[in-house]
Amino acid sequence: MKLIVAGATGLVGSEIIRQALRNSYVTEVIALARKPVVIDDSSASKLKSVVIRDYAEYPDEVKAELAGADACIWTVAVTPFRSAGFDFAEVKRVCQDCTLAGFKGIYEAGPARPFRFLYFSAEGTPQDPSQRPFILGDYQVMRCETENMVRKFPTQYGGTEVCIAHPGVVTNSTTWLRLLLASTFSVVNLFTRALPNVSRDELAAAVLNQAIHGFDKETLSNNDLVRIGQSTL
Ligand SMILES: NC(=O)c1ccc[n+]([C@@H]2O[C@H](COP(=O)([O-])OP(=O)(O)OC[C@H]3O[C@@H](n4cnc5c(N)ncnc54)[C@H](OP(=O)(O)O)[C@@H]3O)[C@@H](O)[C@H]2O)c1
User: Fold this and answer.
1) Which of 95, 114, 121, 134 has a CA-to-CA distance to 143 between 20 and 30 Å?
2) 77 lines ligand 1 (CB under 6 A)
3) Which Pfam families does this entry report, sorted A to Z (predicted)?
4) Given this structure, which CATH class describes domain 2-232?
5) How far is the CA of 78 from the centre of ligand 1 (A)?
6) What residues are paired with 220 via a beta bridge?
7) Going by CA atoms, what residue is nearest to atom 15 of ligand 1?
8) For residues 53, 58, 64 and 69, what is the CA-based torsion angle, rounded to 10 degrees?
């Protein structure tokens, strides 16, 4: 299968690329990003790095690379942690307008049928835009509206299937601080997963599984992602 990973240079996107290159079901990986993605090992023969200036713009030469895709995993977003450094209009543009532009760009390029689009959101995103949370209210409502926009794609664009991933905190060991947090979560998880979290490798394995084999549900909770990720790895 031909898989597009949008946001290929991000924390989650880079792990999805790493696992996709080792997955025998995946024959071609399109790493869509603002910077080149370079992997220098034998798995890289399946990789095509496609650099775009902006996730809102899909020139013909980019569409030519996206054509015929079986699935796309869309990880592009300004995360809540980083959103403080941007105007809200720009955060919304990246999170919402670019998701629509990216989906349309791939659709116009001519995907395979069915074409699976897996969109990353987060656990705790309200499911009703009128339920504005006290913390990060505008951001959370915007992510809720983006999810609702994505859920309508199959009725608007024939031959498409969508899924929304709701990870909690994504634990990883890319820095000492993150390793410390991941270690703390792994101990706490022995007793409770009341604070939703999923390791980066489990999360990547779960979404890859779903993009390859089909979506179990329209919305995958953190617990679903942990379960699918652990059984896949
Ligand atoms: N990390 C977590 O703990 C966590 C938890 C729950 C949900 N999620 C969700 O999972 C998804 C992926 O998260 P992540 O942790 O991988 O985030 P990340 O490392 O910040 O990567 C996000 C991607 O979005 C792109 N991006 C960020 N800001 C941008 C901007 N201003 N303009 C254009 N592109 C921009 C990045 O591109 P560049 O690499 O070029 O900057 C990157 O490819 C997001 O939807 C996030 O909300 C993450």
Assistant:
1) 114
2) yes
3) NAD_binding_10 (PF13460)
4) alpha beta
5) 5
6) 165
7) 11
8) 100
Question: Looking at this protein, which amino acid is placed at residue 223?
Answer: N
- Domain edges within the chain: 2-232
- Alpha-carbon distances of 2 from 12, 48, 57, 58, rounded to whole Å: 19, 11, 21, 18
Q: CA 42 to CA 20: how far, in whole Å?
A: 13
Would you give per-residue pLDDT tens digits along the chain (233 residues)?
999 999 999 999 999 999 999 999 999 999 999 999 998 887 888 999 999 999 999 999 999 999 999 999 999 999 998 988 899 999 999 999 999 999 999 999 999 999 999 999 999 999 998 988 888 999 999 999 999 999 999 999 999 999 999 999 999 888 898 888 888 888 888 888 878 899 999 999 999 999 999 999 999 999 999 999 999 99
Q: Does any ligand 1 atom lie closer than 6 A to the CB of residue 76? A: yes
Q: Is the CB of 79 under 6 A from ligand 1?
A: yes
| Among candidate residues 233, 211, 164, 195, the one with its CA nearest the CA of residue 25 | 211
Give which of 124, 147, 178 is closest to 12, Cα–Cα: 178
Q: Which of 76, 94, 90, 64 is nearest to 14 (CA)?
A: 76
